Amino acid sequence: MPTISQFFGIIIQMFWREHAPPHFHALYGEHEALIDIRTLEVIAGSLPKRALNLTIEWAIEHRDALMEDWTLCQSKQLPKQIPPLE
């Protein structure tokens, strides 16, 4: 699964052959959450509150790029890197 961004110990990844709805995976230590790109809701798993808040803040800033990467993955192309949260 390609890593598209990393910040503050959080790893953001996106699978090539994923199911709807459009989403990304956020990993932090032993925790993992799947987050819907359109609604920014957790659709599976969980993250500690601080890591989730940082992930949502990042996703708000990069929602268009996340949708572009989702489209690339659906057509079996490598997603582009997205800048980290600063």
Number of strands: 5
Structural class assignment: alpha+beta
- List the strand order in the largest sheet: 1-2-3-4-5
**What's the overall average pLDDT, rounded?**
94
Poorly predicted runs: none
* SS summary, helix count: 2
Largest sheet: 5 strands, antiparallel
The first-to-last residue Cα distance is 24 Å
Strand content: 25-35%
SSE pattern, N- to C-terminal: EEEEEHH
Overall number of domains: 1
Helical proportion? 25-40%
Radius of gyration: 11 Å
Q: Tell me, what's the shape?
A: globular
How would you portray this structure in words?
The structure is a single chain. This protein has 86 residues and is of the alpha+beta class. It has one domain (3-74). It is 29% helix and 30% strand. It has helices at 49-61, 63-74, and strands spanning 3-7, 10-13, 23-28, 31-36, 42-46. The chain has a five-stranded antiparallel β-sheet with strand order 1-2-3-4-5, with helices on one face. A hairpin with a 5-residue loop joins strand 4 and strand 5 (42-46). The longest helix is centred in the middle third of the chain and has 13 residues, at 49-61. The chain starts with a strand and ends in a 12-residue tail after the last helix. The mean pLDDT is 94.
